[in-house]
Amino acid sequence: MNFKLDRHTEIKNPPKWLLKLFKWICPESIEEGLLGDLLEQFADQTKQYGERRAKIQFVWNIIRLIHPYILFKNKWVVNFLNMGLLKNHLLVAMRSMMKYKFYSFVNVLGLAAAIALVFLVSVFVQNQWSFDQFHNKKEKIFRLSSRKVDPVSGVKIKEDAITSIPLAPALKAEVTQIKDYTRLASTNVILMKDQTPFRESLTFVDQQFLEIFDFPMLSGSRSSALRERNAIVLTQDMAQKYFGYDDPMGKYIEVIIKDSTQTMQVTGIVDSKADQSSITFDLLVPLMMYQVDVSESIFNTFGVGVLESFVLLEEPNSLNDLSQLMSEVVQKYTPPSHTKMEIGLHSLSSMYFETEITGNTAFINPQKIWILVAIATLVLIVATINFITLSTGHALVRLKEVGLRKTLGAFNGQLRRQFVAEAFFVSLIACFVGVGIAFVMLPLFNNVLDANLSFDLTWDSLQVLFIVCILIAVVAGSLQGIALIQTKAQQALRGKASGSLRAGWLSRILIIIQFSLSTLLIMGTLVINAQMEYVQNKELGYDKERLLGLSMGGSEDRDANHRFFNKYKNMLSQEPQIQGVSAAMNPLKEKNWTKFRFMQSNEEEENIFFNLVTPEYVKSMGIEIVEGKDFRNDEPRDSKSILVNEALVRHFGFEDPLNAQIPGKDFDTPHRIVGVMKDFHFSTLHEKIEPLIIAVNLQAIRSGISGVTAYVWPPDIYQILVKVGPGDLEPVIEKMEEAWGNMETNEPFQCEFANEILARRYQEEQRYEKITTAASVFAILIAWMGLLGVTRLTVQKRTKEIGIRRVLGSTELSMISLLTRPFINLVLVSLILAAPMAWFVASEWLQSFTYRIDLRALEFVIAGGVVLLLTLLSVGFQAYRASLTSPVETIRCE
Fold first, then answer.
1. With pLDDT > 90 as the criterion, what percentage of the chain qualifies?
2. Are 589 and 188 in contact (CB under 8 A)?
3. What are the backbone angles phi and psi of residue 163, rounded to the nearest 5°?
4. pLDDT at site 569
5. DSSP output for 657-684
6. How far apart are CA 508 and CA 823, in angstroms?
7. Please, how many CA atoms are within 13 Å of residue 175, restricted to the half-sphere of its CB?
8. Are strands 231-235 and 283-286 parallel, antiparallel or unpaired?
9. CB neighbour burial string for 172-188, b if at least 16 within 10 angstroms, e if fewer
10. Torsion of CA 114, 106, 434, 775, to 10 degrees
11. In this structure, are strands 705-709 and 304-305 parallel, antiparallel, or unpaired?
């Protein structure tokens, strides 16, 4: 109510929120008198200084009431929740759902599908963020990295987590802040069970590994399990595989490393926490056993990186200073160079999300996690908009109810709370249904993500779901309340809307946003599918079809390895369908090939990839020679001949590569470039093709090598490649296995197709392709369901108009056009808005591929066509049904 100072001046009361604040603070015993004084003062100041200054003074006067004498007289009873009113809200919501079953079904199903996706994504994200968090000393454990820096500019040239073997002990001896250290290296070995060979991954670690890391010990002692040279610690799976239900402790197992058979004693069983650890292993043995796998020179040199090193610090303080101190120590052990060697420290707690500085431990690009979160959020937004659109569209039915409540004295705030409570009730039901859908869909979700998530309603998961329900309720209920409350009581009682509800602009904007997001997901999915198809079908520079690879293990006797290969090759040469047999050092599945460093005369380094092969390699791989010639089939083992790729020729600017030498100041013997290979992809399409040398004899270039980064070492042949001609593959594989059985080897026969090996390189992209496809289907179906509901509401509201138009002679086609045209226009607007957003997002994603498709309009036209077709089907069907209804029926219905 307003009050008057005189007959000419009318003063408004202070804002209601200020009066509410005053009544909440002020005790009832002094409220009436004090409020009168404050209102009189407010009126005087309004007349004298203006309303704005009067409000500021009124606020100040209320703040002055916060005084112990006044506060302690207040009873401080706050009514947060009126149970009677809440019960009424829920009862109204339940009756509304039962009365309008179709709209309730669409709302609940759409929200439930979105909530199911949000729940599954939240479980996955929690799982990913939990990696390496079970280690008690995780904040004090750091992985070392070797960093090469230009000493003049300070610019980082290269950094990786593969370090030399003596690095960690040297740092421990001279840096007092290092409490302990451990190193990890791995190789493939053969384990014998009942005279049957099994190929396994063996991890070499220092004795203190189990003391630094907190992998749960199921049997054995942390401090002594890896003390003895022949000790071996098994994971639960390995213990079950090799010993069944017997107790493996103290028992012996044979491990074949290279051609050396080691008898190991089981001294411990450990839980590897494979689903929560970036450090993965199956079998642990002392690092001293690594000397069986690598030479003594590598064990003692700082110039060759072959393993990962971890340090346990006393206190993780001043990491930059500590890194500088470690770098100074390392520089004492490395020869002078134009590059400066530095040591980096990377926390274990964040190592799983490190994508630039990687080693052999597992990692994930955090961007992919955020992509998942973004996709789930988009689907949830689409479902929420769907809910709001249907609710506001259906609000006309409740206009009289709102008008009656206003007439009976309901405040706008009370009406808003009612709509929020009803929206919360619907979203809560959808939440329960969504959790059920998530439970059913979890196995499929695990399969898509190649994860092992379990259905566990943790407190964190429940918090996420509750927050989602609250957000949906607040947003949907508030917008619905705004649309209804702005209609005056008199108009509402007559069933006439006003403002945005009448104009319908809110519903139109929401439909545009909803279909823009759905179209964005569809366009993104089509681009990802096109890139994945490009990856699978791109010419790689060699013939991957009908190319089989099998591991031949390895022996320290290189002559024995070559005799083994030649014998197997001769046995296979009797099979007419086999077109070629070769062997190589770096297998196809290894995307990080061996890289050599060549010191130049200007003290700069050149890093060049290398592969040691047999003479038949280029021919059996189908690699084209663009200049010169291939190795001869009878190329001698001591040959000085090498092949290079076009990238190397371009890199060094060779005009006559056949008469050139690989630059390097340390070369003391010449080599011969006999041929130039056409560039082929030996890594993924994410990386550009780098310079490459192929040789049948390492000695051809060995004198020029100043350093090495090796994922496969020592240099020898480890994988046999078999090229099979047209015809049935199964008999050929049987012949290969039969020939393998006649060889003297403990290596099991395991062959893989090259195209399957290469496909595994893009598993992450393929997973996210499936996820975006599923999310797009979710989003468009939810949007389509919402459009179906809105169309049905539109038809119901225009029933009388339809009947009159039919009486006046309108045809079914004109009626369908009348009802569908507005929705088609909205969808067209959404397509126009979605296209540039999708183009930008797709361009950014494609930047991660060096070799990628060019964005075409085709994907965007297909996405737009799908959305338009679904719109025409849903709207057109409703319009067609309405046009067939008898005009007499439609006119009478209102």
1. 26
2. no
3. -120, 170
4. 92
5. GGG-----TT--S--EEEEEEPP--SS-
6. 9
7. 28
8. antiparallel
9. eeebebbebbbbbbbbe
10. -30
11. parallel
Q: Are 645 and 673 in contact (CB under 8 A)?
A: no
Q: Which two tokens stand for residue 595?
A: 């890289």
Distance CA 517, CA 381 (A): 8
* pTM for the whole structure: 0.71
d(C-alpha 648, C-alpha 412), whole Å: 75
Tokens standing for 400? 């009289």
**Residue 389 clears pLDDT 70, i.e. is over it:** yes
Phi, psi for residue 79 in degrees, rounded to 5: -95, 90
What is residue 309's three-state secondary structure?
A: strand
Q: CA-to-CA distance for 477 and 427, rounded, in angstroms?
A: 11
Please give the helix or strand (H or E) that residue 371 lies within, else none. Answer: helix 366-393
Query: Using 50, 70 and 90 to split pLDDT, how confident is the model at 6?
Result: very low
How many H helices and E strands in the chain? 29, 25
Q: Residue 198: what are its φ and ψ, rounded to 5°? A: -130, 135
CA-wise closest residue to 288 among 359, 223, 368, 205:
205
Residue 144 has pLDDT above 90, yes or no: yes
Residue 245 has a pLDDT of 87
Q: Mean pLDDT, to the nearest integer, of 212-237?
A: 94
Read off the pLDDT of residues 286-315 as tens digits, 9 standing for 90 and up. 999 998 888 787 888 887 788 999 999 998
Q: How far apart are CA 710 and CA 160, in angstroms?
A: 12
The CA-CA-CA angle for residues 188, 190, 196, to 5°, reads 150
In terms of phi and psi (left: phi > 0; alpha: psi -120 to 50; beta: otherwise), the region of 264 is beta
Which of 179, 191, 182 minimizes the C-alpha distance to 209?
A: 182
Residue at 74: amino acid letter: N
**Structural element, H or E, at residue 183:** strand 178-193
For residues 750 and 737, what is the distance between their CA atoms, to the nearest angstrom?
Answer: 9
What's the start-to-end Cα distance of the chain, in Å? 40
What's the Rg (C-alpha) of the chain?
Answer: 37
**What pLDDT does residue 647 have?**
95
Place of tokens 């101190």: 325
Q: Looking at residue 27, what is its pLDDT? A: 67
- Assign 512 a pLDDT band (cuts: 50, 70, 90): confident
Residue 76 pLDDT greater than 70, yes or no: no
Query: What is residue 848's three-state secondary structure?
Result: coil
Q: Give the CA distances from residue 470 to residues 32, 85, 335, 384, 424, in Å, rounded to whole numbers and listed in that order.
A: 38, 18, 64, 12, 7
Burial (0-12, 13-18, 19+ Cβ within 10 Å), 388: buried
Label residue 366 exposed, middle or buried (CB < 10 Å: 0-12, 13-18, 19+). middle
Which burial class, exposed, middle or buried, applies to 100 when counting CB atoms under 10 A from its CB (0-12, 13-18, 19+)?
Answer: middle
CA 17/CA 58 separation, integer angstroms: 12
The single residue listed with the structure tokens 């340390």 is 666
CB 162 within 8 A of CB 308: yes
Length of the chain: 894
Dump pLDDT digits (tens) for 725-779.
888 888 999 999 999 988 888 788 888 888 888 777 777 777 777 777 777 777 7
What is the C-alpha separation between 728 and 731, in angstroms, rounded? 7
- The Cα–Cα gap between 189 and 554 comes to 9
Instruction: Say which amino acid occupies 636.
Output: P
Q: Which helix (H) or strand (E) holds 840?
A: helix 812-846
Check: CB of residue 376 under 8 Å from CB of residue 775.
yes
How does DSSP assign 514-566, residue by residue?
Answer: HHHHHHHHHHHHHHHHHHHHHHHHS--SS--TTEEEEE----S-HHHHHHHHH
**Whole-angstrom Cα distance, residue 529 to residue 552?**
36
Distance CA 877, CA 887 (A): 18
Question: Exposure pattern of 644-677 as b/e (b: 16+ CB <10 Å)?
Answer: bbbbbbeebebeebeebebbbeebeeebebbbbb
| Dihedral class, residue 655 (left if φ above 0, else alpha if ψ from -120 to 50, else beta) | alpha
